[in-house]
Automatic annotation (TrEMBL):
Catalytic activity: Transfers a segment of a (1->4)-alpha-D-glucan chain to a primary hydroxy group in a similar glucan chain
Active site residues according to the UniProt entry: D419, E472
Pfam families linked to this entry: Alpha-amylase (PF00128), Alpha-amylase_C (PF02806), CBM_48 (PF02922), GlgB_N (PF22019)
Family, per entry: Belongs to the glycosyl hydrolase 13 family. GlgB subfamily.
Keywords noted in UniProt: Carbohydrate metabolism, Glycogen biosynthesis, Glycogen metabolism, Glycosyltransferase, Transferase
Subunit structure: Monomer.
Protein name per Swiss-Prot or TrEMBL: 1,4-alpha-glucan branching enzyme GlgB
Function: Catalyzes the formation of the alpha-1,6-glucosidic linkages in glycogen by scission of a 1,4-alpha-linked oligosaccharide from growing alpha-1,4-glucan chains and the subsequent attachment of the oligosaccharide to the alpha-1,6 position.
Top-level taxon of the source organism: Bacteria
Name of the gene encoding the protein in the UniProt record: glgB
Length: 737
């Protein structure tokens, strides 16, 4: 790095740079432009050197507009140099002319570095937890000049330049400074404004020019099909969510009513012309809907930038940028703030397992396998044709961990649902023998991914105690939702894929055969409290030919609706937090498609509106009754009443919480109507029927217990009751006294 010029009125002798160095600047091959361009001491004075393509004359000025000297053109391509009278401090500006045209260029090579030795130290150590404030593009005022600071990690590159509409995409004009200890390249680009498009032009280690790369830390991107990064102001949002965040940071989330509405932002609803809603338009519609429906959280499928709509966001090329499909990043911040003001949490699907191989993305970023493993047995995902992050590189871990912290800090997100955790944990995931590399102990466990997930959860919960991390993990990996210090992965919750699989398998059967598969509903209770579970009916269950939830149900239309109402009643009465994908709350017939809005017109029909009312009432009941949620993740909150009546396909259990009246959940999963089904309840007295999925208001037959059931003491501590069980229905009873 060139020394900072001293204040001096002396003028140097005429500058005579070598032809070789001039040629290197003109062809973008100079090894260290900062050591050559800009202002440098020359004897008792100073010389200035600049490369301004197209200029015929150049005059140097200071920031006050005082002339410092006229420069000589040494090459027709636009290389100038000459002595300057530096009666002040850096930086300098050049006034260039060509014919009648005149323009001003602030010299990017007359600015000092932004990153410092402490940044280098923490980056190298892997403990820098504010990389999102240092890397990428940030607006700053540096040495009296407004502009953007750019920083990117490319340790094996021979040259890195930031190119954009501010320099005609010319990689010779903003060649960046290499910080050799970290492999980070940086430059302050003066006079660049918010809204400028940019990428990085990278020359690989062997001199090969790479495809232009989007900024891995870009906080905004162009709307597809374009894919450049976009400079943007620092996020400013007047947050009104202190009470919301304080609440979630002060309680045990396992003991709260958590009911999640999973949403694909591009297709929940659309404008009349078929275009996607902006965040503000979504806020006006989606927030009131979720509040009315009683959901506690909205979980968005990935809204980070991605090039291909049918990927649903799971193949992201911009982990730090909310997608331009829905407007500017500030719109997303306003949406989250609006949710928090009315008590709704916001969870983001997060994809640290893999990334797409688009040319402008992370793959072979600096001409080498940088973010991914070089060996395809570790670095290529056969299921999705994507690249797998190299969790053994500290810089990659820092990139991902900082991203998790970024969403929590900058956008106040309440949680991250981590996608495809199983694919991260196993080295042989979707691979045949010989297609994977064992770990250092010869096993199939990806120990580097384990350490990454533990570190991510450690830092996320340590920095943001109110956050919720949820693992989509489909195997029996132990302690997914146990603390790191106890040997767990550190997640708050885990999706219960077994519940989803077994219950859907059971309900898809004709009721006449269900008695032969009774254990599909009882088996899950053997492990229901081994993790902190979320019961997921997600988008994955209603795509790729699987059919919608209502279409999965057997029987005629009446039985389909009755079955689905019973399914939801069972799910909301079962231990575990709840997640339901959009459209399934009103029994959309068609499979979900990202190309169009949900079929909201179905709500004009009574069976669909009845289903929506049922889900709303299930949410409100689940939230109001602590017995249904306060011990969702603990065995003391569940007790079987009837678990072995396979002949009638009847199930009954208690949901309990300390100091709360118990609630009996009773499921009759055949069309047989039981006018007086004898069962035991834990106390004598009147039990109130607080929910009946067969109620007429939900589209049912209206059969039930007239609102109450009398249980009579038997002397054994439990009471006997004759309960009316509607066909294909679930009822919930609560002791009145």
């Amino acid at each position: 790095m060139a020394k900072s010029p001293k204040r001096s009125g002396d003028v140097a002798k005429p500058d005579t740079p070598s032809a070789a160095e001039i040629e290197a600047i003109i062809h973008g091959s100079h090894g260290d432009p900062f050591a050559f361009l800009g202002v440098h001491e020359a004897g008792k004075g100073h010389v200035a050197r600049c490369f301004i393509p197209g200029a015929e004359t150049v005059v140097a000025y200071n920031l006050a507009g005082e002339q410092l000297g006229e420069l000589v053109r040494h090459h027709d391509a636009g290389f100038f140099s000459g002595p300057v009278k530096l009666d002040g401090v850096l930086p300098v500006r050049y006034r260039a002319t060509r014919g009648d045209a005149e323009w001003t260029v602030t010299d990017p090579y007359s600015f000092w570095p932004i990153l410092g030795p402490m940044d280098d130290y923490f980056i190298k150590e892997g403990s820098h937890l504010r990389l999102f404030d240092k890397m990428g593009a940030h607006p700053i005022k540096h040495q009296g000049v407004d502009g953007f600071h750019f920083a990117v990690w490319a340790p094996n590159a021979r040259r890195v330049s930031v190119v954009g509409d501010f320099n005609d995409w010319d990689g010779r004009r903003h060649v960046m400074r290499l910080r050799r200890d970290t492999g980070i390249w940086e430059i302050f680009a003066p006079d660049v404004r918010a809204g400028a498009t940019y990428k990085f032009e990278i020359v690989g280690p062997h001199g090969e020019l790479q495809p232009l790369k989007a900024d891995p830390f870009a906080r905004r991107a162009e709307l597809r099909p374009k894919n450049a990064s976009v400079t943007t102001a620092e996020l400013e949002q007047a947050w009104d969510d202190e009470a919301h965040r304080k609440h979630w940071a002060s309680i045990d989330q396992r003991r709260q009513p958590i009911s999640i509405y999973e949403v694909h932002a591009g297709s929940w609803q659309r404008r009349d012309d078929g275009s996607m809603l902006s965040w503000d338009e979504m806020a006006a519609r989606l927030i009131p809907y979720c509040v009315d429906m009683g959901f506690s959280h909205i979980e968005f499928m990935p809204v980070t930038e991605h090039p291909y709509d049918p990927s649903w966001g799971y193949q992201t090329t911009g982990l730090y940028a909310p997608s331009a499909r829905f407007g500017e990043p500030e719109g997303f911040a306003r949406f989250v703030n609006g949710c928090h003001k009315v008590g709704l949490g916001v969870i983001l699907d997060w994809v640290p397992a893999h990334f797409p191989t688009d040319a402008h993305g992370l793959r072979h970023f600096d001409g080498t396998a940088l973010y991914e493993h070089a060996d395809p047995r570790q670095g290529f995902h056969p299921d999705w044709n994507t690249a797998i992050y190299n969790f053994g590189r500290q810089e990659v871990l820092s990139y991902l961990i900082n991203n998790a912290l970024y969403w929590a800090e900058k956008f106040h997100l309440d949680g991250l649902r981590v996608d495809a955790v199983a694919s991260m944990l196993y080295l042989d995931y979707s691979r045949k023998e010989g297609e994977w590399i064992p770990n250092e102990y010869g096993g199939r466990e990806n120990l580097e991914a384990v350490r990454f997930l533990q570190q991510m959860n450690h830092h996320a919960y340590g920095s943001h105690p109110g956050i919720m991390t949820i693992a989509e993990e489909s195997t029996s990996w132990p302690k997914v939702s146990q603390p790191v210090h106890e040997g767990g992965l550190g997640f708050g919750f885990k999706w219960n894929m077994g519940f989803m699989h077994d219950t859907l398998s059971y309900f898809a059967r004709d009721p006449i055969y269900r008695k032969h598969h009774h254990n599909e509903l009882t088996f899950g209770l053997l492990y229901a409290f081994s993790e902190n579970f979320v019961l997921p009916i997600s988008h994955d269950e209603v795509v790729h030919g699987k059919g919608s939830m209502i279409a999965k149900m057997p029987g005629d239309d009446w039985q389909k609706f009755a079955n689905l109402r019973a399914y939801y009643g069972l799910m909301w009465g079962h231990p575990g937090k709840k997640l339901l994908f959009m459209g399934q709350e009103f029994a959309q017939w068609g499979e979900w498609s990202e190309e169009r809005s949900l079929d909201w017109n179905l709500l004009d029909y009574a069976p669909h509106e009845g289903m929506r009312r049922l889900v709303r009432d299930l949410n409100l009941t689940y939230r109001a009754k602590a017995a249904l949620h306060a011990r969702d993740c603990e065995g003391e909150g569940f007790e079987w009443i009837v678990g072995d009546d396979q002949d009638n396909s009847v199930f009954a259990w208690l949901r309990k919480a300390p100091g709360e009246k118990p609630i009996a959940v009773i499921c009759n999963l055949t069309p047989t109507f039981h006018e007086r089904y004898e069962l035991s309840l834990p106390a004598a007295g009147r039990w109130r029927e607080i929910l009946n999925t067969d109620a007429e208001i939900y589209g049912g037959s209206g059969k039930g217990n007239g609102g109450r059931v009398e249980a009579h003491a038997t002397g054994s501590g439990w009471a006997k009751a004759g309960v009316t069980l509607p066909p294909l229905a679930v009822i919930m009873l609560e002791l009145e006294q």
